[in-house]
Amino acid sequence: MIKKLLVNMKEQIDLLYFFGKDKMISILTQKPYVLSSEETIDKIINDKCSVSRYGDGEFHLLIQSKDLKFQKRSDELSRRLKEILVSNDDDLIVCIPKVFSKSDLSMRTNESKKFWKDHVANYRLLWYKHLDRNKTYYNSTFTRNYIAIEDKTNLKNYFDNVKKIWENRDLLIIEGKFSRLGLGNNLFDNANSIQRILAPSENAFEKYDLILQKAKKHDKEKLVLIALGPTATILSYDLHISGYQTIDIGHLDVEFEWFLKKTNVRTKIENKYVIEANNRVQDDKPFFDTEYEKQIIDQII
């Protein structure tokens, strides 16, 4: 813990020299402009835009401070995450957490407030260093709007609105092998059709070129939903550049499962990989669903 504090202190001193005193004061008082989860969803629905998202995990890989449980850091991963964070491409929104002030955290549980307060206290200056201060960002936690929200009484309407994103659309879901988005719930019941490409549940970025190659074989009229951790941030951007509408959908299915269960804690979900509940599904665990198997059109080992 002391070592971590000393490292963060050194980084902040380095930034002070990098920016200068006056610039540092400006940075400390000017938080990034991040729109709400509701505004983010409306933007996606109305403009049919693509989405690349950053959470604390993507940020740790960007600054190469640590590996994640399911993704090792690398120079190339860091380089691409830095590039996309400040990109300004038409019809693509870049999302970051809306957590940089007390008011941003007002709707969150005490546990979530503490997590983000600690994170911002340690990494605020590094976030600000890598962000484009003139850019409008959207809220990456629009896919995580249940377990960390204090008042859960009106979230059915929230999820109903999210589901409008893919209403009557043909979906291509690119996901970790054991993510199984929408399986056992009605998250995608309003979609026209679903096809799936399965990728590694861990360290997917090591297979990035192959995943991108296989994704590009598909019709650009399909809406592409991606759940592959930090790899999804980059894949969504690259597919968007190639003419697809792509959404880094993250943990939305897991949050929806917890909403359906009416749970207040992160719990395991049968037959699904839920890293936050230490639930790693294995190949040797018996599982078969006829409709799900029909949807799988490719696998990357």
Could you please describe the fold and organization of this structure?
It holds the Pfam family GT-D. It comes from Niallia oryzisoli. This is SP_1767 family glycosyltransferase. InterPro entries: GT-D. This protein is an alpha/beta fold and 301 residues long. The protein has one domain. It is 41% helix and 14% strand. The chain contains eleven helices and nine strands. The strands form two sheets. A five-stranded parallel sheet has the order 8-7-5-6-9. Helix 6 links the parallel strand 3 and strand 4. It is globular and about 60 Å long. The relative contact order is 0.15. The N terminus is likely disordered.
- What low-confidence regions span 5 or more consecutive residues with pLDDT below 50? 1-6
- List the secondary-structure elements in sequence, H or E: HHEHEHHEHEHEEHEHEHHE
Question: Overall pLDDT, averaged?
Answer: 90
The helix content, as a percent range, equals 40-55%
The largest β sheet comes out as: 5 strands, parallel
Give the overall shape, derived from the CA principal axes: globular
Tally of discrete structural domains: 1
Tell me the distance between the termini: 37 Å
Give the strand content: 5-15%
DSSP summary, beta strand count: 9
Give Rg in angstroms.
19 Å
Which strand order spans the largest sheet, edge to edge or round the barrel?
Answer: 8-7-5-6-9
**Structural classification:** alpha/beta
Number of continuous helical runs: 11
